[in-house]
Amino acid sequence: MTHPAPAPGTPTSGRRAPEPARSRGWVIGRIADAPVIITPSWAIAAVVLTLLFAPQVARVAPYGGAQVYVVSFAFVLLLFASVFLHEVAHALVARALGHRVTELALTVWGGHTAYTGTTRRPRDAFWIAVVGPLTNIVLAVGFFALYRAEVGSVTVWLLCYAAAFSNAFVGFFNLVPGLPLDGGQVLESAVWAGTGSRDRGTVVAGWTGRAVAVGLVLLALGIPVAQGRSPDLFIVLWTALIASFLWQGASAAVAVGRAREQVAHLQAASFVRPHAVVTVHATVADVAHAASAVGAYAVLVVDDAGRPVAVVEPSTAGAVPAEALARTPVGAVAVPLPVGVVVDVALHGHALVTTVLRAGGGAGVLPAVHEGRLVGVVMVADVATAVRSAHR
Hints:
Elements lengths: L12 E4 L9 E6 L2 E5 L1 H21 L5 H31 L3 E8 L2 E7 L5 H28 L4 H21 L7 H14 L2 H29 L6 H32 L7 E2 L1 E5 L4 H11 L3 E5 L5 E5 L1 H5 L16 E2 L6 E2 L4 H9 L7 E6 L2 E7 H11 L2
Parallel strand pairs: 1-5, 3-4, 7-8, 11-12
Antiparallel strand pairs: 2-3, 4-5, 6-13, 8-9, 9-10, 12-13
Helix pairs in contact: 1-2, 2-3, 2-4, 3-4, 3-5, 5-6, 6-7
């Protein structure tokens, strides 16, 4: 994301991702075992920013012509180098805390770092988020020191000033406490630490992000009016574009947080359905009899030790011709269960969803147990439907 005069800023963010698809673009290297990608949109942003900065450079530089555009482009490269270091900081801390970084990308909005894995502690999420802006603030201090020391030529002096200003802007703007900015993740971590609910933290930080988006537009309109002048249309349009991006990210965070809150309240016990049991030596006729006797939704097949090893749904058994029921072994219609996978009725929330939806093995039914005893079956489709409803 870019912002025009007096000097631009490029907000960036480190984001969690469940195995995201890789961004399209040119891979220029690897950091933290992840590809560094320059997207096509970055090239567009570089050209646009060069043209936008050129008039400002011309006003303060003692030269003109093509040199103005060369200096302007040098500043764009310096700006995105600062953004890149911001993302590198996110990536290195995320990897140090046990995550697998999947990409670092430079885009038209600045950049992002994507990584997989669940952040289990508020302080881990805090450090991953805050290290990016802190990197920019340290860079701002360093460039400002070089500017004050008046090192090098006039061009170097101007670039140091511009880099100090833009790094300070990027660092402090990203610390604004609203998602999708890094400061929003810091706020999310604080609420998580205070309430014990990460989902609540996500919702709070998302709503704060929405307020930030609205506030930016009001400032772009209100400040000039308060000063007795008309709002600059160009600044208002750019601010509205940035606000739109922030609003979309914040709204998505609110939706995800609310969905996770609903999922957290799911109880395994509410999904348990009646079952019947037959042994691995049974026939399909035994399955039909056992299911009809108790109105079972599914029949579990147990081995000689009483462990569930397969499942038969009544509709599958019903497809066997009546004359073949008694001579067809249960194994002909049974679906093997994932080894060792059962649903404890005490499970709830994300642990329940993870157990059921990641069970694998192709089974649509899983055995439910209470204190090691079979008490019913859980239909995978029921849990999946509940999760989809939560995310609507």
